[in-house]
Amino acid sequence: MDNTSLEIKLKSLNLKHNPIFTKKDHIKYVQDWRGQYKGDAAAILKPINTIEVSDIMKFANENKIGVVPQGGNTSLCGAATPDNSGTSIVVSFEKMNKVRQFNRESQTIIVESGVILSQIHDVVEKENLFFPLSLGAQGSCMIGGNLSTNAGGVNVLKYGNTRELCLGLEVVLPSGKIMNLISELKKDNTGYDLKNLFIGAEGTLGIITAATLKLFQLPKMITTLFVEANEISNAVKLLNTFKSHFPDRIESFELMPKSFWEVAKNNIDNIVMPLVKMPEMGVLIDVSSFSNNEITPNQNGEVQIIKSIENVLEECFEVNLISDATICTNENQKRALWSIREAAAESEKKELESSNLIKCLKHDISLPVESIDNFHKDAQIMISNFLPNLKTIYFGHLGDGNLHYNVFGNGSLPDGFEGKSLELTKELYKIVHNYNGSFSAEHGIGQLKKDSLKTHKDEVAYSIMGIIKNQLDPKGIMNPGKVLF
Is the dihedral of CA 38, 41, 47, 52 positive or negative? Predict the structure, then answer.
């Protein structure tokens, strides 16, 4: 079908918001946030409800047109970017942004895919409830994309990935049929758990149009502290120490080593360092409190939770587990610290743009927590032997074993880093595999990691993924070029 015929047929769908055909208006929708992928599209569609999505899918299926679902377009793996053929249509969910139902009694909320993550936070926190998914991109990412990539974030240690936060889905299949699994039930053991096929599938099996999300009681207070642990092995021991003293109350446990702080200091205006000396192996910790007794000052002005944390820190000092620590005393200090952590991706992007570093290889890996230190040592030996002048900048969610392990190439290298970058990633993933880890923790597969998925996924599991894809999407129209070949 030529573009003129496609334009005429798409207009005949009578969508509330007319398709965008003009190429100059496509830029926002056809390139990824990192600038790594740029494609082309025949049209950009912005449905306002599930019926319109169904009509679009019926049309695309009948005419064998590729469909690229898109939320906030914050993917770090090119999952929401169309290919270069210019024959696909991008379906943006920015107009499907309604809260359909909020149930305080059952602690659930039903939202459409285009609702921005931070807006969910705002809605539920007014009712003293909490949706724990928290990401650096939460001011622009949409819940449909979070579900499609099974996003992680800083609170996985306590609450799990997005999959664990979802009770039900509404999905439009490639045929245009609408599958209604939008249940609020905590228990529904009626055959296959179909909703989990679509969570983490990155839009390759169907389009998530709405979801029922689990909410939690909002903590009465969250205490934020920053600790210098000096090395990874100490940070792991510190994690277990805090888990033993505050079981089920560690909201976040973030590893922020020296390389992270060097980039942050270079690229964040008016940054306030948490400690006098730049941390060698910093850890950012959130501890939640749900009891008034724990957060109300006593007659001596002491707050029980603060005193308890101070006692644990003293124990850690005595055994040389940590060398410095600070507890935030007000919300401004907390926000300042967390804003630095949440700006990690943006800081790295600025570092790449403003320096002579020519390329950044981003790796989103997951490891058994007890193996992280040995992995890092092996990885640094490999990287230092691979090419000269490479720089590793890493940080991540130590509590659940997720590291963002990024390798920067120096501009003084002739062309070796560009030419050998794929080989370096393969060698790094071999080390990850040796420690029974995963090359993809929370960012998904997209276009970036298709080769790695085929290489490292269990052969039988990979073949079953292909069977499922072919059965649900026999014409191959769903997010072509992503996840599977």
Answer: negative
Number of helices and strands (H, E) in the chain? Answer: 17, 18
Look at residue 410 and tell me whether its pLDDT is greater than 90: no
Give dist(CA 296, CA 306) in Å, integer: 11
pTM above 0.70, yes or no: yes
Q: 2 burial class (0-12, 13-18, 19+ CB within 10 angstroms)?
A: exposed
Angle at 251 between CA 249 and CA 257, to 5 degrees: 125
Identify whether the C-beta of residue 155 lies closer than 8 Å to the C-beta of residue 133: yes
Alpha-carbon distance of 33 to 73, in angstroms, equals: 7
d(CA 308, CA 241): 13
| Token duo for residue 345 | 């991706």
| Rounded average pLDDT over 335-357 | 84
Residues 276 and 70: their CA atoms lie apart, in Å, by 43
Q: Are 260 and 268 in contact (CB under 8 A)?
A: no
Residue (of 38, 85, 50) closest to 64 by Cα position: 85
Beta bridge partners of 403: 365, 396
Indicate whether 412 pLDDT > 70. Answer: no
